[in-house]
Structures are given as structure tokens and as C-alpha cells.
Hints:
The structure is a single chain. It contains ten helices and ten strands. The protein is α+β, with helices and mostly antiparallel strands. The strands form three sheets. A four-stranded mixed sheet has the order 1-4-5-8, covered by helices on one side. It is globular. The protein starts with a helix and ends in a 7-residue tail after the last helix. The mean pLDDT is 94.
Amino acid sequence: MDTEDHKALREAVAALGKRHGHGSDPTQLWSDAAKLGYIGVNLPEAYGGGGGGISELSLVLEELGAAGCPLLMMVVSPAICGTVIARFGTEEQKRHWLPGFADGTRLMAFGITEPDAGSNSHRITTTARRDGADWLLTGRKVFISGVDIADATLIVGRTEDARTGRLKPCLFIVPRDTPGFTRRPIDMELNAAEKQFELVLDDVRLPADALVGDEDAGLLQLFAGLNPERIMTAAFAIGMGRYALAKAIEYARDRTVWNTPIGAHQAIAHPLAQAHIDLELARLMMQKAAALYDAGDDMGAGEAANMAKYAAGEACVKAVDQAVHTLGGNGLTREYGLARLITAARVARIAPVSREMILNYVSHQTLGLPKSY
């Protein structure tokens, strides 16, 4: 349940979203939200943030989504990159990046997905090797959002463990114009303000202070960013589902056939009610995941974040589908703005981790069943 502070924040963000609305300029919305303290609400106060947590940040994204103007880079810049740097960065890294994240003047993208690794983060081939005091980073990344508008990208690479010889994940900040760091836009059917890119890192030379956190922390630092990513993806999906559902409810109240609003018919009303229930249940799991994460329970948050992302993705797809179906032909027109969500909603099932991999996680980690791979 929302606290009084959360209710006030939710109402304020909803009002901002309503002023901008569907089709608004995302750059201006980002700037306005940042000035009001919403973009950096989860970042430490000492660095210009709001001092809140992922609970507050997910609430902001959900309400903007419900108003028809979600900001995808909120999943990446303040949630993943901001959280990782705030938890594990050096004092210099925090001073350099966090105030800009908080006031919206700086953005950071996040690069983990690779062409051949898929959902298997253990098969990441982007590697970093030492060259004197520097690092040399080589590899490829795909489906990386917003690289063209970001000041830098937080790249997940792997380094060799001196004790075991095995490769372990490490995080590096790569500024946009670093020599050897190139990007190519991916031609997507999905029509979104934020573009997707393939990245190539060809012996990218980075100073020692490009490494975020401890070289030996490995998965701890990685999942410090991935759990907020899952929670924020759930918020994105829930907001999108709420927006679609609200459009359908308004239409079902007003659209009259044979002297009766179509919403009076159970064949219309019941599926919309079910969609609402599913979105509310997904939100509860998202709030649980955020509360666990903000309390420092990384293990508990990992399980809940995966469940929240799964539930929200399913609820979003069903809500959008039912909304389009409720409007019939009008659901496919540009005027009502629902048809574009058919593709966008499926992203919540696919990214940043597929629903099948979440089911693998729950069956292995929660139920204790043996792995199939």
C-alpha cells in the first residue's frame, strides 16, 4: 500500500504526466520531471538526489506511463547506472555522475546484451585486460537503448580472476566519444523515442578509474543494477497497461449500441475487470520487490523483482489486447493511440529478461528443482 508521501508523489507525477500526455516531447518531459526532483528521487541527497529508493522511482515511471508518456531511460540512467554508482562507485565517480543524473543534465546507457550470449550472462565475451595502468575493452553489444543521447555507457565486461583464471563480470564507464567505441542503429519495427543500437568496442582504452566498484565483487555489483532494472520494467509495463485500460473504460462507458453502453455487457466488462485485477496484483509484487531492494535484501529482491517483471509483462499484454479489442476498429487508429502499444507491450515479456528465463529462475532458485541446462 502507498504511504501518505507516496500518495502525494503519485498525484504530483500524475499531474505532470497529464500536462504532457501522449505524444509529448520526451526531452522536455525529462527536463521538467528532473527539475521537480522526480528523475533523481532514488539518488542520495548528498549528490543532489531525493534520498528515496527504487520504490519512489518506480512510482514515478508507473504514473508517467499511465499518463501515456513513459520515459524508457528512467529504467537505465537513474535506476541501473545511478544505483550501481551510488552503491559501488568511488567518491570521484559519484561526484562526477550522480548530480547530473539527479538534475537530468546527464544520461548513462547500460550495455549487457550480446549477439551470441542472449540471456546467458555467463557467456558474455566482451573482455577487459590490463595494459599498464589502463584497461583495454573489446567486444560487441546489441539492443542498447539511448546510446546516442547518453553521455556514457556502463558496459558489462569480463576480466580474468588472478586466483582462478576464470572470467568474472566487471562494470566500466565508457564515455560516448571514446576512440574505438562505435555504434550502429538497429532498424526496429517498434516506434519509440529511444533508439536501439549495436555497439562495437575495439581495444577501447580506458583509465583505471573507469572501473566501477571492486574488480572482485562480480555478480553482486551486476545484480545491484539488474534487480532495479526488473522492477522498473514492471513499472513501465504496469503504467502502459493502466493507460490502455483507461482508454478502453472511457470508450466502453460512452460507446452506445442498441441504446446501451457497450460497457454494460459482461463480455466487455468482465475482461476489463480481469485486466485491472491483474495489473493491481502485479503492482503489489512490484512494490514488494522495491521495498525489499530498498531495505538491502538483495536475495529477496531478486526473487520478487523477477516475479514482478513476469506478472507485469503478462498483465500489460492482456490489458493492451483487451483494450484494442474493446475499441474494435477504432483500437487500430492513430486517433486513439492504442495500436502502437501492441508491439510495445510485448517488449515487457521479452526484455530485459524473457519470461521463460524468469520461470527458470523461480523453478531453480525458489522451488529447488534441477536445471535443464
